[in-house]
Design goal:
With about 300 residues, the protein is mostly helical. Helix content is about 80%, strand content about 0%. The protein has 10 helices and no strands. The protein is globular.
Length: about 300
């Protein structure tokens, strides 16, 4: 009987232990779902608030080719935003991607130089945008005598987005399995060929995510561009022309206090522009992934 009692007690203990252990996953799930719900609720609240305030204010006058004090057209700002984004990415993308390739594929030891690069990238990613704006104003606008221009704003935004592109590209390359490299080397391919034909195509979805984040930062930036690109309302005709982007245009309308409804309408267009960039990049990344699987 004692043996049986001991056996039953042991069985009961074994049954009770999993029941206690199940409480932790349930609590963790509640916390995760709660945080996810708060995030989604906040996002939806912002989107609904902007749409309710901005959609009724949309009108054909806001998309006139030339800006006037009456129509406060946002079309020049939309075109300037596209130009600024393209200029900034043309500068930051090659530097960030090639730096990440060098750090992951060509450097095997943590030297002092590599540590300095990583610390500099992490420090740059945490600097407020107003500091970038002051630096761009002092260096590009005054020291290089570029003035308030698209070129000053593009180089300033390139410095801001460079750490983001570099770090995301580095993580995407490190996520590529080593067997891809070993298989390529085993077939006689060199490091350069392996990097550009095997590793980069496999890491392209992660690289695109970094580019999308950098694009969103350029599109939504105001403080740094006010000090470097200026607030001129016309379309930039050359790299040394001063022009405002869509975010700066919205800030100017809201700060003046005379066109609050048009500022909300600009926010709607800015929101849809960011969503369009995100959906287009994710669709392109999926196509790349499907093409790799077929190959």
């Amino acid at each position: 009987m004692n043996v049986q009692g001991t056996g039953m007690a042991g069985i009961l203990k074994n049954i009770r232990k999993p029941a206690r252990k199940r409480k932790k996953p349930v609590l963790l799930r509640v916390l995760v779902w709660g945080c996810a719900g708060i995030t989604v609720f906040t996002l939806l609240s912002l989107i609904i608030y902007i749409l309710v305030k901005g959609v009724p204010a949309l009108s054909p006058e806001l998309f006139a080719w030339e800006y006037t004090s009456k129509n406060v057209s946002m079309l020049p700002a939309i075109i300037n935003t596209v130009i600024m984004t393209v200029f900034s990415l043309l500068i930051s993308m090659p530097l960030g991607i090639f730096t990440a390739i060098y750090l992951t594929e060509y450097v095997k030891k943590e030297t002092l130089f590599i540590k300095i690069i990583r610390i500099a990238a992490e420090t740059l990613s945490g600097i407020p945008s107003i500091v970038y704006g002051l630096f761009g104003y002092l260096f590009f606008s005054i020291f290089l005598n570029w003035g308030y221009s698209m070129l000053s704003g593009a180089f300033t935004m390139a410095i801001m987005t460079l750490p983001l592109i570099m770090r995301t590209t580095e993580e995407a390359i490190l996520a590529v399995p080593d067997m891809y490299r070993e298989g390529s080397y085993g077939l006689g391919a060199g490091r350069l060929r392996t990097t550009f034909t095997i590793i980069l195509p496999s890491a392209m979805p992660g690289i695109l995510s970094g580019v999308v984040l950098a694009t969103g930062r350029v599109v939504g930036e105001t403080a740094a561009l006010i000090f470097t690109a200026g607030t001129a309302t016309q379309i930039a005709v050359n790299p040394f022309s001063s022009a405002r982007t869509l975010a700066v245009h919205m800030y100017s309308l809201a700060s003046e206090g005379l066109h609050i409804e048009q500022a909300y309408a600009t926010a709607v267009v800015l929101l849809f522009l960011v969503l369009l960039i995100n959906f287009a990049s994710s669709h392109f990344a999926k196509k790349l992934h499907k093409g790799e699987n077929k190959a």
